[in-house]
Amino acid sequence: MLSTIRSQGALHWLGRQLFNRDDPGAFFDPLLAVxxxxxxxxxxxxxxxxxxxxxxxxxxxxxxxxxRWQGFRAGQHVNVIVDVDGVRxxxxxxxxxxxxxxxxxxxxTLTVKRHPGGHVTHWMHxxxxxxTILGISQAFGExxxxxxxxxxxxxxxxGGSGVTPALSHLVSLAERDYRAPVTLLYYVRTQxxxxxxxxxxxxxxxxxxxxxHVFATEEQGEAALLNEQHxxxxxxxxxxxxxxxxxxxxxxxxxxxxxxxxxxxxxIRCTFFSxxxxxxxxxPLGGAVTFARSDIHVDSDGDAPLLEIAxxxxxxxxxxxxxxxxxxxxxxxxxxxxxxxxxxxxxxPGEETIQLCISVPQGPVxxxx
Amino acid sequence: MTTQLTQSQLDxxxxxxxxxxxxxxxxLGERDARYIRRIIRLHRTLEIGxxxxxxxxxxxxxxxxxxxxxxxxxxxxNMEIGHNVMHGQYDWMNDPSLHSQTYEWDTVCTGDSWRQxxxxxxxxxxxxxxKDRDYGYAVLRLSDDEKWKPWHxxxxxxxxxxxxxxxxxxxxxxxxxxxIRRREIKLSDKKAFLRDFFRKGGRQAxxxxxxxxxxxxxxxxxxxxxxxxANLVRNLWxxxxxxxxxxxEDAETFSEAxxxxxxxxxxxxxxxxxxxxxxxxxxxxxxxxxxxxxxxHHVFPDIPAHRYREIAxxxxxxxxxxxxxxxxxxxxxxxxxxxxxxxHYSLPDRVRVKLEAQAV
Lengths: 369, 360
Description:
Number of strands of chain A: 16
Number of helices of chain B: 15
Structural class of chain A: alpha/beta
Oligomer: heterodimer
Largest interface: A-B, 37 and 48 residues
Distance between the termini of chain B: 18 Å
Helix content of chain B: 55-70%
Shape of chain B: globular
Order of helices and strands of chain A: HHEEEEHEHEEHEHEHHEHEEEHEEE
Structural class of chain B: mainly alpha
Number of helices of chain A: 10
Distance between the termini of chain A: 38 Å
Order of helices and strands of chain B: HHHHHHHHHHHHHHH
């Protein structure tokens, strides 16, 4: 074991000398991508096996990653890496299948909703066909099942496509033959919007611990929005561990209600990912700037570029010409929209490389500095 | 000899060039990504091909093929991939292996040193005597802004040395040896730079002159000779291309005072008149990293280089509109004017002026 690590270390060192890069394995990627894209080293390649329609705007993609993928725990996420119009895009999705499925046939599923205004999810729906190879990251996230041992009663409050981690959780719990009561309150717009319907109804039928309540907010009106009665109907809910995932409105409502009923914060786990949304075109320039690596938060107004904002916050980012030519100050923006001073154009909302000296925040922005 | 335009003409010039840039920027996408990926595949294929052929170099045609393959691989990597990626031309692709600030290329000069001396200093202060140290690389006198000294008589030898050992010269550029000689800075000020220089230079020498020869031990002299030749081919070609970009006969130079409070229009003007192009076929452009379109490159350093060919007629039209010289010509003609310029400025000003008067 130790000798493999040593020889791998030596090989890695040699690769760095020969190819001038920290990931020497990826040097051959451009050729490997043509020979067999499953051999690529720069990310974990995964073959798309099939595409399943869940609802009118949601599809499930079943993937088989290459052997380098290390597996996952129920409730974890992966970044999907796709090239859209020549631009590499990363988007986070929760794995909707259970780890047992990956262990038996080496596949996982991602359930993706067309995000309104979301460039990448639309592209995935329109362009990904069985046989396509895309990239994924290793799994990450802490939306974990309760530890095995004394089973605790659980309450899931999920909304829309936020149900995906619960699908993975519930299948895993049923396999464990979880004895304590488990309740899922699932909020959708209409019954036709239920994601993973087949799995959920089958589970509810054969696994007595699960009680499933679907609320269709558009069909049933006001009464179907999360309220006290929904919680009161769940036996002993205040003592349960709660898992929340859904759109911000539902999350806020759930958190407020649970707090009012005296549910402790340690009992609640939340997670939610949504494709980043672009700010409205008429949003004024300036905004809250977060320098993530140095954990500094400052407000900016007007057309001050990020380089000046960073310097005012006593950071010393690399810079050169200060006029957008030399790219010395290029760094990663992880969230938010910036306007390019030279072109007057707004950036996309996601993670990308920007030039600090000519980028003016438009709304809140997070920079990796 | 600086070209004069009024402030409102300069503003119009900036607007015209900005319009070209914005249009190309808005159009970047799949086509550009496919282009650079194809070039990278070509580079990998040629590099592997060269390394594989080299040990069989005891057959003379195979030796030539090996040197050509590895030499061209290095040229493509340095010129069309490395130089352009480090300019941020492909940052929009969001691909970590094509990121301007982390890319490291197959030459002695470290990426970081290059980003400082080339992307920042040379591209910001293009042809400003005293600020753009690329102007003559501090070893050549190429304008009368610099006082003539007797040792300039020998500058043709300097030029030959520079072109043969170009990658080492570029690698040592940031050392600012001329300022150390003048005692403006101390060698110890450059400790961090020298450490990086020796690490990268050592890495390059190890690869080409130790590792691959040793790997093919029985034929190591052939592999060593082949690798030396490949590096030489790259050095001669890349230095020639770069010299044709700024040191041709009519490329203008500027004083430090002239760029104080420079407007964007003035900056554009300086880039247009301080650079020169040469013509050629598609492969001449690719092998020069499209620095055959030095003018377009200097005006738009971070637009993917293969686009320069397409926008060249429009940039030329802009030059015509403002009565600016669009300095272009065949490769041979441009290179001849470079050699003439090096020779002329090696002479004392009195002799040079007399010679030039006779020529006219």
